[in-house]
Amino acid sequence: MPEQQPLVLRGGAFFESDSRTFVRGDVLCIDGRIAGLGEVEAPEGAAAIDCAGEYLIPGLIDCHVHISSSGDPAELTPGQRLSLARRAWRTAEHARATLAGGITTVRDLGAADRLNIDLARAVEGGEVEGPRVLAAGMGVTMSGGHGHGFIAREADGADEVRKAVREEIRAGAGAIKLFASGGVLTPGVDPRSPAFTRDELTAGVEEATKAFRTVAAHAQSTEGIKNAVAAGVTSIEHGVWLDEEAIAMMIERGTYLVPTLTAPYHIAYGAEAGIPEYAVEKGQAVLEDHIASYERALEAGVKVAMGTDQGTPLNRPGENAQEAVRMADHGLSPAAALLAAGGWAADLLELAEETGRLRVGLAADIVRLSEDPLVDIRCLTRPAALAGVVKGGRPAGSTGGTI
Ligand SMILES: [Zn+2]
Question: pTM to 2 decimals?
């Protein structure tokens, strides 16, 4: 790759995660990293972007996507499965859209044919323009469990779970996804039912931890959540039915909650858009309880991070920032919502030394806003307020990828 031109973002104000305020000053990017904040001296030949009046925040992190899915409800119709090649081309397009929407890092928690791992490599190699991808490969679920035959592979018993996790790591997974309960989108699977046993989950966590991978557990039912937390997973995804005991366990163990409020919201209101009836019914039943659980968890001090479950019906690539707005609508301050989509998300993904905050030495992943998100967090979702996205010191849309 040719040497990267230094870049200076001039005249704006940047979000300081520790003080949770905006500080006036420039941002200097050299070799893809933040090299200076405040009063900076740009090297000769540096490119400059005039950011006067703008608010610069860390590139957003979505901890739960299925980037190979478009969010088109028809994708769920049996027989609609496209060929691998066409899905790969679409995935590249979803990656560009995601980055353009201000998301500079995603964790992909399950893709058929492990397209997420190939995407991670294609972005890394500069072939496709997109966010940094931490890919889980295929999720691991019990026989007949949520996600089977789609984004997850089946395994039963501790030994099979162990082997499945090892195989995902061998295939290149940077994170592991286990299914601890049923879910909304798999026909005939009840989200209130637990899935893997505590033993199976413990075996999966042990294998992942040995390989320095974090573990995300899909967990909606109360018992499934407790099984996953007790097994030592890093994050509970969805967490629809949290009771006091589950919340206390999460606080004690430092388990994160990635609530994905956007997923049931769209499913519950998506009947006219063609979302199958069985999913709409389950989505509506889930939504109210889900929001109540999230609010109780926040109040108790459970750590949270932003994840959309992008790829579920009407939950489209590039529109990921809507989740930060929902997290704020139901209890986070605007500054805390920026952290949930920034620094806290990086902490969860163990990427805090790489991205998530505007700090010298970290990757120059930056979203430029023409409005102050601390005044109105909704500006994250207004295309007119999104002045530009920089990933690794390069403006999005400027590289295009090589294919
Ligand atoms: Zn998901």
Answer: 0.96
